[in-house]
Amino acid sequence: xxxxxxQLAANLAKVEDRxxxxxAAAGRAREEVTLIVVTKTYPASDVRLLAELxxxxxxxxxxxxxxxxxxxxxxxxxxxxxxxQLQTNKVRSVLGYASLVQSVDRARLVMALSREAVRTGxxxxxxxxxxxxxxxxxxxxRGGVGPDGVGELAALVEEAPGLRLDGLMTVAPLTGEYAxxxxxxxxxxxxxxxxxxxxxxxxxxxxAGMSTDLEEAVAAGxxxxxxxxxxxxxxxxxx
Length: 239
Ligand SMILES: *Cc1c(COP(=O)(O)O)cnc(C)c1O
Hints:
The protein is an alpha/beta fold. The chain has 9 helices and 8 strands.
């Protein structure tokens, strides 16, 4: 095995142990939680190694970085998730590889995704990104719709041709009432999911938790954790 492969295998094993322990502590079955590896800033060669090591879900947050990487990995049995702030002019490129967009946060984006899904005859999974630190504008600083806007946006996705409403996603806020209170934030997301599922029972994905707080997310009931650093290493610079 190459050094990198050995390193990724060891990191994956550690993350797997953490998820399994968190599931056990929460009285949940391990199968209830899906690991999505966030490969942003890392090369296609790493994605290939991860696929060989059994990873099936990967996520990216910038189209410029993701599009060539996904193209280089198109032979692999991977599901690509898009988790970054998405401008409507990038929708066509992103839907060229991503089957799920976890950062749906406004009506204009829903319309653009729907148009492109219909044009290409595909069904696109959508998670609404919830900003638990949304200010008066009803939007988060790093994207996301405020809790009050979830119902309306969900209805829009549900009605949009080519789109499938899959659930909710959040990133633990760095500011506001939930700063430093990841578990409370994820429990709030779970409450919003419970409300959402009353009218949209199939929208049962709850995407929460990253390298530092996946345990809190699993404890709160997350179905998907998005882990980058703990698998691939600390990213150089911003990412
Ligand atoms: C980068 C990123 C992650 C992974 O974060 P790590 O701390 O590296 O695990 C998860 N979700 C989103 C939306 C991200 O941008």
